[in-house]
Every structure is written in structure tokens, then in C-alpha cells.
């Protein structure tokens, strides 16, 4: 299936390249220019007159409907609220004093046993490094001194005046 698809793709690519080569190699025929057609001038469009609308009909004023008054709400008597009962003061309970805390005796800490000193290990002596001879540097030819060029004196530009520093409040 995939080989069939690859063959179709190869054939379509080769036919497209042949068509492109044919278009590049052979001369194109000259296309004559067509004359521009002459169009008649635009006709004049007159503005249409505004239509006259009839006047709005008068609407007679309607009488206001009479709204009946709200019936008076009778005042209800205030309910009697009983007074708050007086709460008698309760006697303060006696709090027993805290018992004294006796200091505990400090525990005896045993002394650390003495650590015996260990003998220092003997290290071998450092090896000696022999001195190496200094490498010889190659001899470079001397560079001749060049004469200093003369630089003409140029006029100095005027120093710019700076605005005064603003005063800062401490």
C-alpha cells in the first residue's frame, strides 16, 4: 500500500517539474492590450422631496382616578414587659494557696574519665624537588625607535556653565 502511494507521489512530482520546465523554456505569446471602454457620464440624481407628515392627533386628557384613602390603623396597646429579676451576688469562693515547691537536689554528675594521650605518628620526610634549569628565551631583534609625530595645538572648547545646585533641606 505504501509503495503504491510513493509511486503516485513520484509520478506527480515528475509531471509537475516537466510542466514547469516547459513554461520556462518556451517563449510566451504577446498579449495585445485591450482598449479601455468609454463609459457614459454618470446621470444626475435629483434629491427627492421630503414627504409632509400629517400633524399628530390630539389626545384628550384623561381624568385622574380617585384613589381611596388608606384605612387608619388603630394603635395597639404596648405589652407589659416584666422587669428583670435582681440576681443576688454570689459569694467568692475561697481559693486554697498553692503549696510551696521544694527545690530538688542537684544530681551528682560523674567526672569524665581522663583520655590517655596518643603518641604522634611519625611522618616520612618531604621529598626534595631538584631545581630545574631555567629555559632559554629566544633573542628577538631590537625594535628601532620611531620619531614622535607632531600634534598641532587645537583650541580648547569653552567650558559649559552648569546651573546652580538646588538647595537641599536637612
Automatic annotation (TrEMBL):
Top-level taxon of origin: Eukaryota
Q: Which residues form the signal peptide?
A: 1-19
Q: Where is the composition biased (Basic and acidic residues)?
A: 35-69, 91-111, 147-164
- Report whether Signal shows up as a keyword of the record: yes
For this UniProt record, give its keywords in alphabetical order, as a comma-separated list: Signal
Q: Report biased composition (Pro residues) as residue ranges.
A: 116-132
Q: Where is this region: Disordered?
A: 29-170
Under the heading PANTHER family, the entry gives: GOLGI-ASSOCIATED OLFACTORY SIGNALING REGULATOR (PTHR47641:SF1), PERIAXIN-LIKE (PTHR47641)
> What's this protein's name?
Uncharacterized protein
- Which gene does this sequence derive from? gb21535
Amino acid at each position: 500500500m505504501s509503495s503504491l502511494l510513493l509511486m503516485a507521489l513520484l509520478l506527480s512530482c515528475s509531471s509537475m517539474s516537466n510542466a514547469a520546465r516547459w513554461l520556462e523554456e518556451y517563449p510566451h505569446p504577446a498579449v495585445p492590450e485591450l482598449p479601455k471602454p468609454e463609459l457614459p457620464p454618470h446621470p444626475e440624481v435629483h434629491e427627492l422631496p421630503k414627504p409632509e407628515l400629517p400633524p399628530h392627533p390630539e389626545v384628550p386628557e384623561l381624568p385622574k382616578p380617585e384613589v381611596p384613602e388608606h384605612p387608619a390603623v388603630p394603635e395597639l396597646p404596648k405589652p407589659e414587659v416584666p422587669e428583670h429579676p435582681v440576681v443576688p451576688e454570689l459569694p467568692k469562693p475561697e481559693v486554697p494557696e498553692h503549696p510551696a515547691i521544694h527545690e530538688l537536689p542537684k544530681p551528682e554528675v560523674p567526672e569524665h574519665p581522663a583520655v590517655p594521650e596518643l603518641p604522634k605518628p611519625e611522618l616520612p620526610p618531604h621529598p626534595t624537588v631538584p631545581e630545574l634549569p631555567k629555559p632559554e628565551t629566544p633573542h628577538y631583534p631590537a625594535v628601532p625607535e620611531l620619531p614622535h609625530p607632531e600634534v598641532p595645538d587645537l583650541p580648547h572648547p569653552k567650558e559649559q556653565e552648569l546651573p546652580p545646585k538646588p538647595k537641599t533641606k536637612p
